[in-house]
From TrEMBL:
Pfam families registered for this protein in UniProt: PCO_ADO
Listed name of the protein: 2-aminoethanethiol dioxygenase
Any one GO cellular component localisation term in the record: mitochondrion
GO molecular function, one term: metal ion binding
SUPFAM superfamilies linked to this entry: RmlC-like cupins
Swiss-Prot/TrEMBL keywords: Iron, Metal-binding, Oxidoreductase
Organism: Acanthoscelides obtectus (Bean weevil)
InterPro entries per record: PCO/ADO (IPR012864), RmlC-like_jellyroll (IPR014710), RmlC_Cupin_sf (IPR011051)
Domain of life: Eukaryota
């Protein structure tokens, strides 16, 4: 009998290879299937929910479990230590679905190219001396669009190329784990634009209500991850 995680994977493959007219209903079906995924469905090891694992000297603040990868999508699990976080980062021209399977997380999401950010950019362009434009490299204008606490009872959180494309994810009240589906994967080519890379950002300043200037930073030194093998049911595609 097909397992639930295998059904999610098959629907993810169908979604991210579907024709444009079938994409929206397939994405909706994927989100509905993902909503019902539990830690048991992927055999998440109970040790990750204990505080003692995370207090071991030298333990990485984040553990990743790769479940599946092809040229269209990746599926994996991220586990955050108590009080841990994934620093603010982007997903260039990507879709993403996050489903909490253990603990609780806070997801703070920003969008680019919204009416508010475009208005801010238009005004600052008119105000700026041309030489200042040069220093704008690696700075983006982003609108804070949501800050939500999710637990295992929450629907999946979705990001799109033009919606909630940047986010920071923190564990709340202990360790937390979430299943993550990303499409297309990091490392694939963006047409006419080069490789799809993950960039990290920090808030530079606030420029108007919910609008911030973010600057690109190197991956923070406190953030690194280790890997753990997938021990859930075998997957067939
Ligand atoms: Fe992300």
């Amino acid at each position: 009998m097909a397992t639930h995680i295998n059904n999610v994977l098959k629907q993810a493959i169908l979604t991210f290879t579907s024709k444009s007219e079938l994409f929206a209903p397939n994405l909706n079906a994927l989100s509905n299937l993902l909503e019902k995924i539990t830690a048991e469905d992927v055999n998440l090891q109970p040790q990750f929910a204990t505080e003692s694992l995370w207090s071991r000297p030298g333990k990485a603040p984040v553990t990743c479990i790769d479940i599946y990868e092809d040229e269209n999508l990746t599926m994996g699990i991220f586990i955050l230590k108590p009080g841990g976080n994934l620093p603010l980062h982007n997903h260039p021209e990507m879709y993403g679905l996050i489903k909490v399977i253990s603990g609780k997380v806070k997801i703070t999401s920003y969008s680019l190219n919204t009416p508010k950010t475009l208005e801010v950019d238009r005004r600052s362009f008119m105000d700026d001396h041309p030489t200042k434009l040069f220093s704008r490299k690696n700075i983006v204008t982003a609108e804070l669009v949501s800050s939500e606490i999710l637990d295992t009872s929450s629907k999946p959180c979705m990001l799109e190329p033009n919606e909630k494309n940047l986010h920071e994810i923190e564990s709340v009240d202990g360790p937390a784990a979430f299943l993550d589906i990303l499409a297309p994967p990091y490392g694939t080519m963006i047409p006419n634009n080069g490789p799809r890379l993950c960039s990290y950002f920090a808030v530079l300043n606030q420029v108007s209500k919910n609008v911030f200037k973010l600057h690109e930073i190197k991956s923070p030194s406190w953030y690194w991850n280790d890997m753990f093998p997938y021990t859930g049911p075998e997957l067939k595609v």
